[in-house]
From TrEMBL:
Protein name: Uncharacterized protein DUF2384
Source organism: Fulvimonas soli
Gene Ontology MF terms: DNA binding
Pfam families: Xre-like-HTH, Xre_MbcA_ParS_C
Annotated ranges, domain Antitoxin Xre/MbcA/ParS-like toxin-binding: 78-130
Span of domain Antitoxin Xre-like helix-turn-helix: 12-73
Amino acid sequence: MQMRPLPQTPAAPQLAGPALRAFFRLADAWKLRIADQRRLLGDPPESTFYKWKRQQDGALGRDTLERISYLLGIWKDLQILFPDPAQADAWLHKPNRAPLFGGHSALERMLSGNVADLYVVRQYLDAQRGWN
């Protein structure tokens, strides 16, 4: 018996525009490549990604909205932990000796494609700010 994936239930339509606008601002601040942006959003088809980027709106599945939510939480945590916005944005790209990252950057961990890795990075940063 072959298992079919569950259909992507659309997220609340009123959240899509603000979520995408916030994501693309965050992607600019973090200087993310297009391939990395797509990966963090869950690998949407290229045409869908560019439509979202152009229109800053569109139908989002729950998975994509969850991903954006974790990313915004990570951004917020970094802004709290590092008073200098440039330092906060750069942290994501720097190698990290914490066991969670094994010498790789947080961004490398987040680019695995698993939403769970976004969650883990968010949880790590929440703990660093004493908010767990």
